[in-house]
Amino acid sequence: EQIIRAIAVKLAAVAKITQEQLALPVKKAAVLVMAMALAAYAGYVLPKYDRIYLQPWGEDPNYTSVFMRMTASYVKPFDACKFIRDNRLSGKMFNYWTEGGFIAYGQDPDPNTGKTPLQLFMDGRAQAAYEPGAYTRWMNIMAGGPPVRNAQLAGRNLTASDYKAIGDFINSEFKAEDVWVVLMPINQYNTPFMRGIEMLDNWRPAYLDEQQRLYVNVDSPQGKKLYDGVFDGNTVFPNKFSECLTRSHNMLRINDPNSIIAGFELAKKAFNLMPSQTSAMELIVASRYPPFAAQINAIFENYLQEFENNRKQWEQKDGYALKLTAGVIAAEHLKAMNKDKPELINRYSKISKDYSDERSKLLEKARW
To answer: Which end of the chain is more exposed for a tag (fewer CB within 10 A), N or C?
Structure first.
């Protein structure tokens, strides 16, 4: 009825048409046309809806509901917030601004004041709820401050000394703001901010998972206690994967043979618990130590064989894309380890391309 009215008015054919004025055959024809159009549209939409929202979800093995897929909320720090709650973290943190609201939601607020124990630096409302100066300050810290601007003005790439200067700038800003916790998502790992943090001796990763990293200032009492607890077992983790991943990440970077051996064993456990980009990269870090190189080659070779044996079953389960990514990393590593063997290079190149192409198709199929 509304479509017919709109067309009539648009063409100035009839000034006004009411439902009563429409002849019964016209009404039936309009209903039939609309029903056919709706059926045709449903035939297009429903199969896609099933494929995108109901079929196995490749991007995550746990958070797979329609809501999680529609909003990409599976990347939010669910487990990191549980880590914050279980370890009763309080004080002030520096967070990625679009995740601020979720981090606040993921805490247990004071029942009397509603205040969250770990206070945010910024949340998704940005300028709408904060003074412009607060947002500008967040932006300046996140961008890396004067060291980044100076390099840009000089028209050069950032160097190791620049990253050290970025870290020193961040450290001084956090000291002024009394910040002792930093939580960042995976898409920020290669930014000047994160690379600057990693140059600092007093900032250490106390929590890692597939999507998030949480750093603490070990010069602070809370930070030292939490970081020490990673090694002595007093820090509580939401699951075994994040515990093994966090401990291996730290132990593999301590210049001590016993710690490195323990880190390698934990990296193997993390990879077995969930083959993924993050766990595979920890094994590659371990492969830099000669005693583990051959073992890691064997682990990756066994994984590729297991992948082929179970491919049909795995592709019908949630989290398949993570396994594909782990396969690409494994194949690329093995290709690099066999530079003098053309037949192996060709084999691993083919596997890497095959898995990469399948992952791209999987991602494309999960979009409208």
So the answer is: C
